[in-house]
TrEMBL record:
InterPro entries the UniProt entry points to: ADH-like_C, ADH-like_N, ADH_Zn_CS, GroES-like_sf, NAD(P)-bd_dom_sf
UniProtKB keywords: Metal-binding, Oxidoreductase, Zinc
Residues covered by the Alcohol dehydrogenase-like N-terminal domain: 25-146
Top-level taxon of origin: Bacteria
Gene3D superfamilies: Medium-chain alcohol dehydrogenases, catalytic domain (3.90.180.10), NAD(P)-binding Rossmann-like Domain (3.40.50.720)
SUPFAM superfamilies per UniProt: GroES-like, NAD(P)-binding Rossmann-fold domains
Sample GO molecular function, one term: oxidoreductase activity
Recorded family membership: Belongs to the zinc-containing alcohol dehydrogenase family.
Protein known as: Zinc-dependent alcohol dehydrogenase
Length: 393
């Protein structure tokens, strides 16, 4: 089959790889009909390079049709339509029972000290072949895949794999009272969808980014916007808009590749010049994140407010303003989305006749898998009004 593979720093290639097969009786093999490109894939493209091997199949936002079914699978049949969550979670361990699917103890990576395995996401997360491919092996088939009805277009359900539960969890963790104000930093797919979900719940939402067409998109959905390329301090502007107090909660939907962190950006680039083994150690031992978005969140949140971090960070000695966090009495919540914790609730919303979150028009680009190498570059550089790409293998 054809698959998108990592071949080197900023080098994705579509190549022929062996078809996946049933390995455990609880597996299914899914023929992929749509598969998303995510901001998280961009970390593999560049900063997480030390944890990738040439040939790794990437992608973690797939859906499709079940083609082969393992002998122990009870609830799925060939022909069923499923969305595959990005975390590989067993559904029955201590963590999964508590809704902490991204910490699944069956697939946790104890050798690298990381949480549940993820599809297509480096040695740090189990090196599981990913879903930007024509076919995908999916384990724990009775609990992991989300069965969806036939009929509506793929885009109605596809974002259940990642964008929707990630944004949903970001809003849940932000925990804003009914008449409160939520600030969303970053208007990529995750920030955009977080804003939509929060507005659907009746919250006042302000979104910050510097990419005009991304701001225009969320403005079109009803959010207030701040273009941070036009001002120095996001915090001051947010306080102006909130009676001098700051936002009740802030979602950081940016993560480690934030613009406006020149020192860390230089460090990330210097890291790329070191031998691979050394890169791994340096990355996990020293700070290498770009913290601009998180710093803005700490500044813009009100005293006693909450910061909900959905952007991915990767360093371990990043300097944080502990005095300011402590003095402002800030709560910080974060983590990979626990997809299965939220997916049933979201699916019920998606099955309503009207597309309340606008998922069917959410993707800006539908492209064949062959276009992946160029799409990665354009998505990173935010060219062509590209916000969300869906590949159709
Ligand atoms: N927690 C999870 O489970 C989970 C799941 C999916 C994605 N993510 C992470 O969420 C983040 C966003 O993903 P995405 O797909 O929306 O990516 P994206 O790269 O398309 O979006 C990031 C946006 O942030 C903006 N930005 C950059 N620096 C900024 C700054 N200093 N202030 C304000 N805006 C800034 C960029 O212009 C861009 O529009 C990534 O870090 C991704 O890895 C996390
Ligand atoms: Zn994703
Ligand atoms: Zn589990």
């Amino acid at each position: 089959m054809k698959a998108v593979t990592w071949q080197g720093r900023m080098d994705m290639q579509v190549v022929e790889v062996p078809d996946p097969v049933i390995e455990d009786p609880t597996d299914v093999v899914v023929e992929i009909t749509s598969t998303g490109l995510c901001g998280s894939d961009l970390h593999l493209y560049d900063p997480l390079t030390p944890f990738m091997n040439p040939g790794d199949v990437v992608g973690h936002e797939p859906m499709g049709i079940v083609r082969e079914v393992g002998s122990a699978v009870a609830t799925l049949q060939a022909g069923d339509r499923v969305v595959v969550p990005f975390n590989v979670s067993c559904g029955s361990c201590w963590m999964c029972e508590r809704g902490l699917f991204s910490q699944c103890e069956t697939t946790q990576n104890r050798d690298t000290g990381t949480g549940a395995s993820l599809f297509g996401y480096s040695k740090l997360y189990g090196q599981v072949p990913g879903g930007q491919a024509e076919m995908l092996r999916v384990p724990f088939a009775d609990t992991l895949p989300i069965k969806v009805p036939h009929g509506p277009p793929d885009d109605r359900f596809l974002f259940l794999s990642d964008v929707l539960p990630t944004a949903w969890q970001a809003v849940e963790y932000a925990d804003v009272e009914d008449d409160g104000t939520l600030l969303v930093i970053g208007a990529g797919p995750i920030g955009d969808m977080s804003a939509r979900i929060a507005m659907h719940r009746g919250l006042r939402v302000i979104v910050v980014d510097s990419v005009r067409e991304r701001l225009a998109r969320v403005h079109g959905q009803g959010a207030e916007t701040i273009d941070h390329s036009e001002l120095d301090g996001i915090g001051d502007r947010v306080r102006e808009l909130t009676d001098g107090r700051g936002a009740d909660a802030v979602i950081d939907a940016v993560g480690m590749e934030a613009h406006g962190s020149p020192v860390a950006e230089t460090a990330q680039k210097a890291l790329a010049l070191l031998p691979k083994k050394v890169q791994e150690k340096v990355m996990l031992t020293f700070g290498s994140d770009r913290l601009a978005a998180l710093m803005s969140a700490i500044d813009a949140v009100r005293r006693g407010g909450t910061i909900s971090v959905s952007g991915v960070y990767g360093g371990s000695t990043d300097p944080l303003p502990m005095f300011q966090l402590f003095d402002k009495q800030v709560q910080v919540r974060m983590g990979q989305a626990n997809v299965r914790r939220w997916s049933d609730e979201i699916l019920a919303l998606l099955q309503q006749d009207d597309d309340v979150l606008g998922v069917e028009s959410f993707a800006t680009h539908h492209l064949p898998l062959e276009d992946a190498p160029e799409a990665y570059r354009k998505f990173r550089d935010k060219e062509d009004g590209m916000v969300k790409v869906v590949f159709t293998p």
